[in-house]
Amino acid sequence: MSRLVYGWLTALISGMPAWLGYLLADLFTEIHFRFFPERRHAAAANLAVLMPRVSRRERMKVVRKMMRSYNRMMFEFFRLPHLSREELLGSVEVVGKEHLEAALARGRGVILASSHIGNWELAAVMVAQWGYTLHAVAGVQLGRWLSGAVRETKSELSIQTVSPEDGFRKLLRALQHNDPIALVVDGDIYNHGVEVEFFGRPYSFPAGPGQLAQRTGALIVCGYCERVSPGRFRIVMEKPLDPAAFASTAELNQAVASTVERHIREHVDQWCIFRPMWEPSAATAPEPAGEARRVQA
């Protein structure tokens, strides 16, 4: 039943003209902002860390842009299963694909480290369209009832979903087969983290990128997929990080965290994270009730 419902949703949304889908996504931004206060407060608290010298009013403007980007991503996500290969390839500019190819030429697989910028799901589909079997770590998507249908659809697109509970075993096997694996390192699905400095504060970062790279010799390629305009995207892949060049796993994970931090700073209005990433402080505490009313007005 969940597969039927998910298939109906994707067919319905993909049948919309793109301009109408983006218009509806943008119109729902205000609903997203006003009726999901926990998400709004969490995003604002995170921005207080990223943008400490910016006023609360300006941060709220950015929160709206973040929510608009997320709404657009969801529209694009439901369209993905029905896009032709030509439509997909024609909508994406790729910068740095040679870094992925060079890393895989070593025969040890490659670790793709990204964040929730723009449309990370589309980036995964693009990697699969290039002929690779991508193994992506992901938790529950679109609720537990639809999560199975999402995974089945991804498997049809040559994306193998790996649960966090599976541990390193499946990821190690993928790297041994010289397949790429994808880790979205700013997610909340990792049970065991290591401390890094992230935006000037201690942060529990997934241990996977550094540990897998040091254990297998696989290179780490950091990247992101930004939305250039509605329906147009740019995937950027940076020069690989070689685990042999770092004295410890901790240093390697810090290098990944610093790279991802730079990506987020450059595309903060497309950063789709709506959970508090740091412990609240005086600077990041939720606004008083009166202030909240003024912001929402």
What does this molecule look like?
The chain contains twelve helices and nine strands. The chain has helices spanning 2-14, 18-35, 37-50, 56-79, 85-90, 97-104, 120-129, 143-156, 169-176, 208-216, 249-266, 289-296; strands spanning 92-95, 110-114, 134-137, 159-162, 180-184, 193-198, 201-206, 219-229, 232-237. The strands form two sheets. A seven-stranded mixed beta sheet has the order 1-9-8-2-5-3-4, with helices on both faces. The chain has a two-stranded antiparallel ribbon with strand order 6-7. β6 and β7 form a beta hairpin. The longest helix is centred in the N-terminal third of the chain and has 24 residues, at 56-79. The termini are far apart.
